[in-house]
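Example 3.2
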Amino acid sequence: MAPHTIDVFIQPIRDTQQAQVALVALCVLIVLDMLFGFCAAAKDGRVQSSVMRQGLWHKASEFGVVMVADVADGMLIGGIDLGYGAPVVTAAIVGLCANELVSVCENLVKLNPGLAGSRVLDRLLESKAVSDAMRGADDGAD
């Protein structure tokens, strides 16, 4: 396998500052979501390892989405016509960041219900509710 063949799958993140920033932001938001989610559960006396395990699987699947998007970008860079040319991995990471941002805000509101009146948080949480309703989601767990 030629080095170029492998490099096309590394290049979408290595050579794009926006993708790098988005990936670091996603990692930070995932850590914050897990931290504040644990704190909110502890505050209410609802810490359960099974719920935490399910959350970890959800986080792992988010990294799976990043990997699949990176492969799609690598295919585009390698010359395979997929019918579009957008930076797939950056868009996927940014979408996941938006979801994590809303989840972090939900956990912060659980910790401090007084934050619920914040216009920014209310808009984020409202957009999450609309998104969940459109997808037919049965819960807001990440």
